[in-house]
Every structure is written in C-alpha cells, then in structure tokens.
Amino acid sequence: MLNLLIALDQLAWVLLTLGNGSPDETISAAAYRMERQGKLAGRILRPLIDAIFRPVERDHCRRSYASEIAGSQLPDSYRARIT
Asked: Helix, strand, or coil here: 75?
C-alpha cells in the first residue's frame, strides 16, 4: 500500500509541474529541495507539508529528500554497483 501512495505522490508532482518535475521525486522531497534553492514554492510548501505530517514524523520533507538522495526507496538490485 505504501508503494502505491508513493507512486501517486510522484505522479501528482509530475502533473503539478506539467511534466517538468522529476518522475521519481515526491512532493515532499521537492518542497525541501526548492526551499534549499530559495524558491518561494519551497518556502510555502515545506512548512505546510511538515505541519501535516508532524503527528506522524518530524522533519518529513527533509527526511524525504535525504531518502531520495540516498536512493533508499530503490530495491537492492538497483542499488548494487556494477563491476
């Protein structure tokens, strides 16, 4: 079920950006990235999303961004290094 929710989140981000968003980036990770870049959208979205997720997880957007950077959402077979 979690994979389905993440896939819908990623699809929503691509649709919201009219195809300019990364197809593997969630709205939360994008909000954190955009805030770090000093973009207005990030400065608005990141605190809003973090407030929504606060009962479940603190620093949700930062954690989502870190997960994207680490590739921790990928199956082990995709993280294996090719030699």
From this structure: coil
Radius of gyration of the chain from Cα atoms? 13
Please answer whether residues 46 and 61 qualify as being in contact, where contact means their C-beta atoms are separated by less than 8 angstroms: yes
Q: Can you tell me the distance from the alpha carbon of 37 to that of 74, in angstroms, rounded to the nearest whole number? A: 25
Q: What angle do CA 37, 16, 45 make, to 5 degrees?
A: 45
Q: What is the 3-state secondary structure (H, E, C) of the chain?
A: CHHHHHHHHHHHHHHHCCCCCCCCCCHHHHHHHHHHCCCHHHHHHHHHHHHHHCCCCCCHHHHHHHHHHHCCCCCHHHHCCCC
Tens-place pLDDT, residues 13-51: 999 999 888 888 999 999 999 999 999 999 999 999 999
Per-residue b or e along 68-79, where b marks 16 or more CB atoms closer than 10 Å to that residue's CB:
beeeebeeeeee
